[in-house]
Amino acid sequence: MRKNDDKSTKWVLVFLALVLVTILAAALLSSVRSKEEMLSLRAEIDQQRVTILDYEDLLAEKEEQLAVHKELLGIFQRQSSNAAYDFSQIRQMVSQATQTVEDLKKLEESDGELLAKYSKVYFLNEHYYPENLTYLPNDLLISERNQQIKKEVLPFLTDMLAAMRSDGLSPRIVSAFRSFDYQGELKNSNVVTYGTSVASQFVADQGYSEHQLGTTVDIANPDTGAEMLGFDITEEYQWLLDNAYKYGFILSYPEDNSYYAFEPWHWRFVGIALATELNSKGKYFYDMLQRDINTYRINMFDTTQ
Ligand SMILES: [Zn+2]
Asked: How far apart, in Å, are the Cα atoms of 266 and each of 121, 156, 176, 231, 252?
């Protein structure tokens, strides 16, 4: 009898031990699982923290933009109440004012004259003097030494002339930057040579402002010489018509334009993006709205489109 009791006690003890082991194992397992869970939760929290910081940055940026837009709106509102201002025009102006603060700043720092349209009524201030003028290498010139151009434009020009040379052509720069005073002298000498009406038609009124910018060149070849007569029937001219846009240059006064006399030699740098746009649309620079042109100013010296 006692032996039996002993046996059953033993089984109870074994059973209890088994239960205890199971409970301990379960507890151990759950603690491992919760540790894993905790780690993954912590990682998730860290991720959220980064996301929040990103949002804060974004928000600060948007707030800055908003402040600029509010200021612009204020200006437009004042203008609209001051005068009979076309409402749709205001709306258009507001919708255009969506550049980022960085773009606005960049725009503020860029030279507004570089893409301006010049005409008989709007031309460059006589005191305007371009920044960063540099000398053109003499082997690019037809005769006159000490020709200057804006430093930022030089690589585009030398690339273009190199491409022309490798196509077997002989382009030569006749004239690049001209100061207001120099332009005045040039006009006078042409008045003496050709008479007032002819001289004012092709020297002073149209090309002068563009040469004063330091972004514009007159191109000829050894056959036409510095007089550039007959340049429109040269292979150099045809090449420029086909390819100059790839280097950011446009023909300011093309044949049959409705404003100015034809100047096949006169090429102005406006940047690859704008020149390419004009080329693909078959458009003429002086037909484009100034405010549309201005959107190209920020990236004017970019080497890609
Ligand atoms: Zn010119």
From this structure: 20, 16, 10, 10, 7
pLDDT score of 155 more than 70: yes
Q: Is 255 a catalytic residue?
A: no
| AA letter at 245 | Y
Note the pLDDT of residue 202. 44
Which helix (H) or strand (E) segment holds residue 280: the answer is: helix 272-281
Residue 17 alpha carbon to ligand 1 centre in Å: 104
- The pLDDT of residue 90 is above 70: no
Using the CB atoms, write b or e for 203-218: b if 16+ within 10 Å: bbbbbbbbbbbbbbbb
Q: What pLDDT does 203 receive? A: 46
Q: Is the pLDDT of residue 196 over 60?
A: no
Cα gap 128→119, rounded to integer Å: 16
Q: Which two tokens stand for residue 270?
A: 């406006």
Whole-angstrom Cα distance, residue 144 to residue 190? 17
The answer to whether 204 and 178 have CB atoms below 8 angstroms apart is no
Long-range Cβ contact pairs of 68-77 (< 8 A, separation 24 or more): 68/97, 68/101, 68/104, 69/94, 69/97, 69/98, 72/97
Tell me how far the alpha carbon of residue 107 lies from the centroid of ligand 1, in angstroms.
Answer: 27
pLDDT at 204: 46
Mean per-residue pLDDT, 274-286: 95
Which residues make beta-bridge pairs with 141? 173
Residue 233 has pLDDT above 60, yes or no: yes
CA of 143 to the centre of ligand 1 (A): 16
